[in-house]
Structure formats: C-alpha cells, structure tokens
Amino acid sequence: MTPSADYRVYFYPLKEKSFLVHIIINFLEDNEDITYKELIRKIEAATPPQDYEDDIEVTEEAVRLHAEFILEQIASYDESADDVDKLSRTDCIQHLIVLSGKIIPEKKRMQSTSRSTSTNVQPKQTMQQKKFQDKRMKKKTQKECNTKLVNRIFDSIFQDYVCCLEDVNNRENSDFECEIDEIEQFEHDFYEKELKINYFDDFSSTKLEVSFNNVIECRNEVSLFENFKIHGEVFKVGDCIYIDSQSAFHLGKIISIRHDKIENKGGLHVVYFISASDTILGKAASENEYFLSNYCQTIGFKSIKCKSDIVFKPQLSNWKSIGGEDLEEKSINNAGRRFYYSKFHDQKTCRFEDIPEAFNNLDADSCPICEIKNRETQGTISLPRYTLNEEIELNLKLYNSVKWNNIEYKIKDSVFLLSSAFGFDAVPRSLPTRENFREVDEDKYPEYYRKAKSKESLSTCEPYRIGEIVAIYTLRKEVGVRIRKFYRPENTHLGKQATYAADFNLLYMSNEETNVNISAIVSKCKVTYCRTPSKIELTYDQQHFYYNQTYDARSEELTRSETHDEEVDEEPAETLPLATLDLFCGCGGLSEGLVQSGAAKSCWAVDEDLVAAASFKKNHPDCVVYGYSCSTYLSMLMDPDCELNLPAKGEVEFLCGGPPCQGFTGLNKFKDRLCAKLKNSLITTQLSICDWLRPRFFLMENVQNFIRCNDSMVLKSTLRCLIAIGYQCTFGLLQAGNYGVPQRRRRVFILAAAPGEKLPQFPLPTHVFNSHSTNSITIDGIQMIPRHNWPTLAPYRNVTVRDTLSDLPDIEDTEPNESQEYNAHIQSHYQKILRKNNNTGLIRDHFYKRMNAITTERILRIPRTHGADWRDLPNIEIKLSDGTWTKKLEYNHDDVRNGRSRNGSRRGICRCAEGGRKSGVNCNIYRQKGTLIPWFLVHTANDNNQWNGALGRLCLDDVFPIALTKLTISGKIGRVIHPEENRILSVRECARVQGFPDSYIFCGDIHDRHKQIGNAVPPLLARAIGSEIRKCI
C-alpha cells in the first residue's frame, strides 16, 4: 500500500512505530532476559517489509523517539498477561524507561496493578499471547539431554541447559560380564596394588651404591643394562619414577640404562609425563590423569627420588559396545592421589594419541621420542659417501643425491622452493595500479575522506617456485643444487592476465638455470609432460603439475616441448568409505566434501530445519534424513522402544557435524542471550551421540570464537570429554581460503579417532591466501599449530572473484528464472571443478534478492573500481524509480574527531559528533531520512572502522568476504555488490563462493537458500580434511 503525497508524512511514521512494536514484543516474548543493547541490535538487524521506507530498520534513535508509543503498546499487551510474565517488568524495557524519560501510562499501570491483586478474575488471552507464553514456559524448562559422562564434564558450564538422560537399554549378560571383569582388573591395579616406595635423600652427602644387572648390549665401552639397583632397590627399563628437578618433582618413564666404563659414569634416558592440568585441558582436566609427553632427557642416578605409583589405564576390549556408561567417574572418585595415564600428548600440535607401539617394546638403544624428533627436525643434511666428480682446485664436489630434512633428492627430481629462491628473466606486464584514494570534490562526495582512515589488508604471498634438479654439489662446505626453472603463467611477460584462463597446475619448461642453497628446497612435487591436460586430476588433492610447452623469455614465445613419455595420474588405492552420520547437517556442505574425498558415504543425517533437510535429501538421495532436533534424535537412539529405523551401535563409522554457532560467532549480536547459550549446549548433544554410538572417527566444526568461549572452557571440556570416552583427539584452526575456497572463512575443527585407529593429520594448505592470517593458536600461554612444520606458502595461487563468476550470465531485471544457460565456456580451473558433474548444461538458482528504490539507486551510484563502497556516494537529490526524491544529507555540526573538510565545511550530522557518542545527546532528533548517503552509516562510522566495505562492490582480482546467511549490504560484511553488474550477489554466486558444485540443488525460498549456504561448511575445505581421514582408513 502506497500513500499519497499528502498522507505520506503521517503514514510512514505510523508504520515505523507499529513495525518497532511488532519486533520488540515478538522478541521479548522469546527472550525476556535480554539486555537493552541486545534489543537495539535486533532492531537494527531486522528487515522491514518491502513497502516500508528504506531507513526504517535503523535505529536506536527511533526507539527513543517513539518510546512513549512503544510503552503504551507494551502496557496494553501486558493487560492480559500473568503478573510474572509482564514485558514491562523486563530489564530492557525498564532501561528504555530510564533512557527516554517516559513512563507507562498511569491508567494502564493502575489497571495492571488492580488485576494483579485480584484472585477471582483471570485476564483473557488472545491465541497469539497464549502461544507465546506456552513457548516461553517450554524454553524455560527445556534442557538438552546427554549421556552420563558428557553431562558430568559439561555440568559446570551449561548446568542450567543440560541434564543426564538415563540409559534405558538392557545390555546382554555376556557383554556386561566382560566389562565387569576388565574394570575390576584395572581397579585392582589402580587402588589395591601396594608399592614399596623408598626415598633416597641427601644425594650430595651420601655415596650412591649403584649396581647393574643383565647387560643387553655393549657398544664403544658403553654398556646398556636391563636393570640396576640403588641401595638394594631394583629399577628396570619401563619403570616409572619421580625425578627431582631443583624444587619440583616430575614423573618419568625409564627408556634405557647405560654406563660408560671409560668415564665411569652412568645415567638413565627418560621420557617425561605431563599432568593433564598442564596441557590445554587446564581446569577441565582430571586431577589424577597424566599423559606421556614428547620430551625426553638423559639424567643422572642422583636425580631419582623414588618409584612412581602411576599406572597405565588400558582400553576395554568391549569399548564399542558400552557407549553411554561413565566408567571414569568411579576412577575419579576413588583414586585419591594415585595417578594414571592412557594417552601420548604432543603439546605443540595439541594431539592426544594412543601410546606409540614402540613404548610397549622398548629397544635397548632406541628412544621413540628421539626418533620422532629426528624425523621432524629441520635443517639436517646427509650426502652420499661417493662423489660423481671432484674439482680439487675449486673445492667442488658433485653428487647424484642428497638427503635434506629426511627426504632424499636426486637429479631430475621436481621440487618446491621458497618464493625468494630465484627470480625470472621475463618482466611481467603490470596491471593498472589500484587507486585507493584520490582527490575529489568534497562538497559532492563528503564521506570520501574516510577511505584514508579505514584499514583493509588482503595481500597474498606468491606460491612456491618450482624447479627441476640438474646438479647437486658442495662448494666450500656449503651444499647447493642447480635448478632448471619452471614458469607459471603469471611469471611470463603476460603477467597476471595470463592466469585468468590457465589451470592452477599449468607450468612452462624453460632453459633458465640457477644455483640455490639446499635450504631453499621445501619438498618434492610431481611435474609431468602431458599433451592432454584433461587426464590430470582437476582437484587440488594430488598437487600434480603438468607442462607441454617451453617458454623463452628473450623472444617472449611459447614453443612445443620436446616429446616425452606422457605420464598420467595413477589410480588411488581403493578404500571403502565410512558409513557416516551427519548431525546438524543443514544443506550438506560438510557431507558433500567428505563424500568427494572418498572418505565417507552419507548414510544418515539429522536436522530439525525441514527445508535444509530437504536440500540434503535432494543431493544425497540414498541417505536417510531425519527431520528432528539432534536432542530428540539422541533420546530416540537411547530408547529401546523406539520404532524408527535408527543406526545401532557399531553401524556408524564416522560421526560429523557442526553444532549451531550463534553463541560463538562474532557476527551474532545476540550471542549472550538464553537461546544462544542453549544452542551452545548442543555441542554436548553431538558428544553424547558420539559417546553412545562410538564411531571410528569423529569430526566437529565451529566458528573461530569457539576457541575463546568461556575462557576456552568449552573447547577444553570438549577435548576432555573425548579423551574420557577413550578417543584420540586434536583440534586446529583452518582458513578456507588456503584450500581453494575464494573467501575469508576461518573455522575450528576437532578431529577424533577411536582407540587403535590412526588419528588423522590436518591437511597442508594447497593455496596461498592472506599473508597476515595465521593458523597458530595461543591458549593459556601455550601456542599450538595444526601440524609440525606448518608452511607459510602453498603450491597454488589464491582463487579470485574473477575465477568464480566470469562464466555466469548477466541477470536482467525481470522475474527470476530457476535455470539459465551459462554465459560462456569454462574460463578458469575453479569453474572446471564446480561444473564437472553438471550434466544439464544449465545453471540453477541464479537470481538475487530485490531491493527497494533507494537501495537500488545507491547500488547504481557505487563505482566499478577497487574498494568502492558507501563512501563513494554523492550527496545529491535525485528522483527514484518509485517517483520519490532523495534528500541531501545536511552537515550542521562540527566533528571533533574528523575536523573540517579542505574547503572548511563541517563533517558532523549530529550534535554527538561535537562531544563524542558518550556525551548523552539524544541523537534521534537529529536523524535524517531518505538521503542517498545513509545517515546511520555516517553517524556510527568513527566507531566501526569507517564502515569499510558497507554498500561495497567486489573487485575481480580480490577474494570474497565471508559468506553470510543473510546478504546485508549495509552490515559489517557489506561488500556483496557484483563487480560489474548493479545488483547484489545471486544465490548461485554465493554457492560458488562456498565451493558448492553447480549441480547442487537448494530448496526453499531465496531467504532459505541464502541461510543454508551461509551456514554450510565449504565442501572444498571438507574435502581436504576428508582426504587426510582417508589416509587413516
């Protein structure tokens, strides 16, 4: 409904007030414990109906302006509410009363008071009010149900939101007897075994009487023994001891016993234990648990304090069948000061693994930790004994191989080198420089000056250099290699433009050679001559490069390379994919990537969002999809009378999922409210299902802030819970852009493997990305990385906006079409991957959300230049498509933080700019509507990095910001305008940003599809993780 010009001034303020009241009452009914600040954020994030004025959603000022009307409506609504449920009594409404200086009308208050004192008259309720109250009562009493073990560990964090769900299943007698026997055996060792402990004091004044027994080996006058005695007390290899280290005592395990006859000295080589509380687990750890560490040392006999009473806790043989039991609780309650260990811990990578097999069969002169360190040590060089040639005068020796960092390199091997290892003879053509800031007419573009104040860094590193080893030599005691250079397309004279249509793994052979130090070599790589690139695997997993042409930098020409025997990819070894259950599956991004990797077969999936579940089913037709909440699903799993066909224990081999992240993400403005905390507790639901089903592998995904939540206690308790169940586990922070996804998206992944399985590593980066991002994490002063020797570079360049969108058709301003033809043939490697299985030749979901008249005009006015956003908008009056006119934004105040323009014009639009936002000014009276430059962006720019990117246009040679569940052009992540067209991104374009193949189908309306895509795990990132899991199957 559009009012006439005469009534517009009355009509829109009334619609604005009613819209605000509608949002506030609905939000308070669901979240009565929110703060005033959270309510304002909800209002600012709300999307008004299509026929409302553009700026109606913005504003704390509007709430204060219409405070009296809002309070009247709330008081009226409260007339039919119970005394305890009155919205007017909530903290946020009381806060509004204080800020606005308004009060609830006296008449309404008196009526409300009289009803609350009456005992005979019950107020009438509308159906909607009754529905809201029932919903509120349900939320107040609802708790997420968990297994006993999970409930105990998480009780201190989510004690109001989780409860224990009793196991109602009856186990078979045979399994139960086996379980009891093994528990009793461990308890006998843990509680009843008596150790005779002797302390050896005053080592400095007492001569130790050490005798050695049972010589195992004698080498170079150094004897290795099986055991020794000190004052009659026998110590043997494999014993655990207390070690006196200055003022502290440490636990250690004896690895070897040795005595040097020449120096008449002896000692022990020990591996230390680390207390669980000294690991990342911190306060979440069990007081009695220790881990075998990756730190070893040789000590003297005087350092021995006494034998330790620590015992090894084995896993039960029927571990998989006893899911849901909390066998650890009895151990904790009865342990006293007795200690136990069951896992090996690498603190640098935060990996908790089964005790390595080498510790069960200790060799006389071999330390498992020393061997691991030797394999991981960087900088070790080993040359063969014989040389190919020797120039005595030049002190030059030639070799046919060299061992560097435990990898043997030979002549003709292809290798990755640091990007600084060498340059090229060709001079690439440079693209036009980006004009980030220029001189403009400040009267017409009054906000352009803010561009010099904002910070944005998307710089990326170069990928590895690639070369072929021609010679290996030593010269003046330095080891070097001679390298024949391979060119990438961007290294030629054509520059970056040559990459637009080239494969990421395309190389050109050259005749250029250079000498580099051995330290410049990173690792081996695979480069083959290939006339038919289609034979090379398209994905990034293999990192397989090919060439068929030679580049000459002098002539700037490409010629056909000499004929070689053509090599093709070998077929990977066949592995049976794991039967997978996907919790909180959404539309299926995580499962899609895991299935692509060959690690998983999607068999079961659970999500209470029925539209997202329908999308999952469309793309995984053989999967059983349950449209329930995961809490309900857990209850059904544990209910022996449930008639649904659910997976039994032992059937699920891989459990994956990404619990709702609303309580963790920094983009959520309401993460502290009750609903968000309840969703946080769904982490325990996934862990409980894992505890019940005991799959072989486990994967959990969440946002980066998951690490910091509750002083990292959520992360610590999650790891603690997996270890208590019996799993090996680790976690890591991965950047999706490092795995071929064209966006900034950092996510936390927790990986776990059942006892006896191999715990997967996190995948190494395949693409270079933002040079300022890091994958290291510091918690409680402990710095961790996803895996040892994590690289700073990668084999491939980053994926850009151009790579993602260049083949998609333009969208005409007509009704959206479900499917269209592609605009062009495949134009990039990334498009090859996404279009690979789209057999229809049509692109689906290529339509976008329509905007109102003033937003459409703003998009039209954003230039097609790098970094263009709202600050490029002119301050003019112009007629819109709906017949209305915009207004010029008036600058009537000084801005103490930004001063005045070059021509002396003011820069403040509100009185608060004269004294700061905390000056107590009622800003709502200064608000200006209908301006081309949004008033609210100017009003809050100083406190929000100048709203860098809001109403922003994408650049073809950059990457996307993070994919969102709702495209908001004026939000924190506002750079969502197409780089060449005057519109926001389409649904399919957002799907490509996430890495969904073009054949992927999404159900629901446009809002549902955007939500599903924004919540998904990028399939290419999931595929990279799945490839590592597949290696462990």
UniProtKB/TrEMBL annotation:
Report the residue ranges that make up the BAH domain in this protein.
233-356, 441-562
EC class (word): transferase
UniProt keyword terms in alphabetical order: DNA-binding, Methyltransferase, Nucleus, S-adenosyl-L-methionine, Transferase
The alphabetized list of GO BP terms reads: DNA methylation-dependent constitutive heterochromatin formation; methylation; negative regulation of gene expression via chromosomal CpG island methylation
UniProt feature, compositional bias: Polar residues: 111-127
Keyword Plastid in record: no
Gene3D superfamilies recorded: 1.10.10.2230, 2.30.30.490, DNA Methylase, subunit A, domain 2, Vaccinia Virus protein VP39
The molecular function GO annotations come to: chromatin binding; DNA (cytosine-5-)-methyltransferase activity; DNA binding
Pfam families noted in UniProt: BAH, DNA_methylase
Region Disordered: list its residue ranges: 109-135
Protein localization: Nucleus
Matching InterPro entries: BAH_dom (IPR001025), BAH_sf (IPR043151), C5-Methyltransferase (IPR050390), C5_MeTfrase (IPR001525), C5_meth_CS (IPR031303), SAM-dependent_MTases_sf (IPR029063)
Q: Which residues form the active site?
A: C661
Looking at the UniProt record for this protein, which Gene Ontology cellular component terms does it annotate, in alphabetical order?
nucleus
Any keyword Membrane?
no
Q: Per the similarity annotation, which family is this?
A: Belongs to the class I-like SAM-binding methyltransferase superfamily. C5-methyltransferase family.
Q: What is this protein called?
A: DNA (cytosine-5-)-methyltransferase
